[in-house]
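Sharing in case it's useful to others searching the archive later.

Someone asked me privately for the predicted structure of SMI1/KNR4 family protein, so I'm posting the question and my answer publicly. Question first, with the sequence:
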Amino acid sequence: MVEEIVTPERLEAGERYLGSLRALGFEPDGALWSMRPSDPSSLELSIFSSLVEKVGPLTIYRALFDAYDQGKTPADFDPWIVSLYGPHQTFFDAVAGFDAASVDPDKGAAFVMCGGSDHEEGGNVVRTTDFEIVRIVHREWVYKVLEQPRASPAASSLRRWRRFEENLARAA
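And my answer, the predicted structure tokens:
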């Protein structure tokens, strides 16, 4: 079943896509395929970057689509299936330091992320869950794991990002 969701061809397409981004100057902190449980239509290439907070997700998405429109990324890889995550997002923190080698090859790993609020009720603090997000990841879906969460991008990441933008501007 897992092989039917993320086929070897899709894995290779993701690798080519990430390689083209690296060649242009965008080096994500991490990248992997993930989906909601029992919902293969929710499959996405999850890209993790500390640049999300620095330059903004809209700037990055626009650049990804510009690269696609200019033929600088593979034509067979649709950027609509890419999702970006920055250090202030729960999935970014959940994946940081993820040990892909320890994942059951048949079941995968489930990342459960909850958000909510605390309030006092009858002298007790009660936590109310406002949302719950679950993403499934399998070992073979992981391209690069975040080594540790970074609150802000390194200067070298910003330089590579500027090079990425310059490479896109040259072709426009």
